[in-house]
């Protein structure tokens, strides 16, 4: 049996702590893209709300956005607002969004534009931080992202007078190297890094990682605040996300799509061989003329219900026989038709970057609890 997680915390009681009217500011940055920064922010927001009644959120510079009431809003700001109802105008939570021509427009007139952008960020921050105990600030990628238009994460953290938490993939040598590089930029801006969180670590390796990474980071002057275990469900796409990724069209059970895909199985073998793979969370990829595979899937779904396979993708735009389509229509088995071959579709699915979405109701409670269970919140709060 492995040693207990050194960062395991008891459940936080619902209580509040005085802040003397001062808004504490935490800037969450990462060492690379898709390191788990948004997951950390979702969990930190929930953890802070256990202790403080008023928590604000802002992502000053966003690169991926959605249209909300005529405003371009960073998708992470929108996600957090949908989950927590932050009660701040959404445009203030996402003051700057970088569209495809943003950098060129900036470089054409940098002297005129930079001051306007800084002013916009500061005004938005004043609004989200007004009468708040804590303001959580989400960065965009590593410390240097945004340098091309003079709004790097390090620079924005200095403008907002925030202290930084760095999120980095798990390990020992690599995260220490990457944190050292990022720390240099924050140091140059005079910004304090109050700790690091390592993400996506094999649960069995958490004690070893925490011990040695903690020693290495300590030599850099960066406390290790916690180590988050890798959770397959957080990186598993839903069937609707897969459909969007491959440009598929729904043939059956369009109202579904929430099934979580944990394994992709290419149905190239005979139906007898496919039967062993008709399990919960498995996605079967097969041509539409493989009647035997489709019939086996229908049978498995009918007998096991929601505990059977997550769905079927039919490749090469080959549809089942009309009679078989009628049989599918009598079931709740999700079926998607796609134009491409099995290899191309499988490669696209395996290469997906899975972002948490508001409709991921199964993920949200897990993310909320993740920080509470695996981060030393007392050590984090002691920095303030």
For the structure shown, list the relevant keywords.
15 strands, 16 helices, alpha/beta, 2 domains, six-stranded parallel beta sheet, Rossmann fold, globular, Udp-n-acetylmuramoylalanyl-d-glutamate--2,6- Diaminopimelate Ligase, Chain: A, domain 1, five-stranded mixed beta sheet, 384 residues
Description:
With 384 residues, this protein is α/β, with parallel strands linked by helices. The protein has two domains: 24-232 and 359-382, P-loop containing nucleotide triphosphate hydrolases (Rossmann fold), CATH 3.40.50; 239-350, HprK N-terminal domain-like (Udp-n-acetylmuramoylalanyl-d-glutamate--2,6- Diaminopimelate Ligase, Chain: A, domain 1, 3-Layer(aba) Sandwich), CATH 3.40.1390.20. Helices cover 41% and strands 19% of the residues. It has helices at residues 37-51, 75-84, 90-93, 102-108, 110-129, 153-159, 173-188, 206-220, 232-235, 239-246, 271-274, 291-304, 322-329, 342-350, 364-374, 377-382, and strands spanning 24-30, 55-58, 61-62, 65-68, 71-74, 96-97, 134-138, 163-169, 193-201, 224-229, 249-252, 263-266, 282-287, 311-315, 335-337. The chain has a six-stranded parallel beta sheet with strand order 2-7-1-8-9-10, with helices on both faces. A five-stranded mixed beta sheet has the order 11-15-14-13-12, with helices on both faces. A two-stranded parallel ribbon has the order 3-6. The longest helix is centred in the first third of the chain and has 20 residues, at 110-129. The radius of gyration is 24 Å and the shape is globular. Mean pLDDT is 87; it is low at 6-18.
């Amino acid at each position: 049996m492995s040693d207990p997680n050194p960062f395991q915390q008891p459940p936080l009681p619902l209580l509040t702590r005085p802040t003397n009217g001062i808004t504490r500011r935490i800037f969450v940055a990462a060492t690379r893209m898709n390191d788990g920064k948004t997951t950390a922010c979702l969990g930190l927001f929930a953890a802070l709300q256990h202790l403080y009644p008023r928590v604000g959120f802002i992502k000053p510079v966003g690169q991926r956005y959605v249209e909300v009431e005529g405003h371009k809003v960073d998708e992470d700001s929108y996600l957090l607002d949908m989950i927590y109802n932050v009660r701040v105008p959404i445009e203030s939570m996402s003051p700057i969004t970088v569209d495809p021509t943003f950098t060129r427009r900036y470089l054409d007139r940098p002297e005129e534009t930079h001051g306007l952008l800084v002013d916009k960020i500061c005004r938005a921050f004043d609004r989200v931080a007004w009468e708040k105990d804590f303001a959580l600030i989400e960065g965009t990628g590593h410390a240097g992202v945004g340098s091309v238009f003079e709004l790097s994460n390090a620079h924005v953290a200095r403008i907002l007078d925030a202290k930084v938490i760095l999120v980095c993939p798990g390990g020992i040598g690599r995260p220490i190297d990457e944190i050292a590089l990022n720390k240099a930029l924050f140091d140059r801006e005079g910004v304090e890094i109050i700790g690091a969180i390592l993400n996506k670590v094999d649960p069995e390796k958490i004690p070893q990682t925490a011990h040695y990474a903690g020693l290495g980071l300590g030599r850099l002057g960066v406390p290790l605040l916690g180590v988050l275990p890798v959770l397959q469900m957080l990186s598993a796409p839903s069937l609707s996300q897969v459909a969007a990724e491959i440009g598929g069209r729904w043939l059956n059970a369009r109202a579904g799509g929430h099934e979580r895909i944990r394994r992709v199985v290419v149905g190239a073998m005979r139906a007898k061989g496919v039967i062993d793979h008709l399990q919960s969370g498995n996605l079967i990829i097969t041509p539409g003329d493989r009647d035997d595979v489709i019939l086996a899937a229908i049978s498995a779904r009918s007998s096991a219900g929601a505990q059977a396979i997550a769905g079927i993708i039919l490749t090469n735009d080959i549809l089942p026989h009309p009679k078989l389509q009628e049989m599918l229509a009598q079931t709740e088995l999700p079926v998607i038709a796609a134009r491409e071959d099995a290899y191309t579709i499988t490669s696209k699915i395996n290469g997906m970057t899975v972002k948490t979405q508001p409709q991921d109701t199964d993920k949200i409670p897990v993310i909320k609890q993740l920080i509470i269970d695996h981060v030393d919140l007392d050590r984090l709060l002691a920095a303030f």
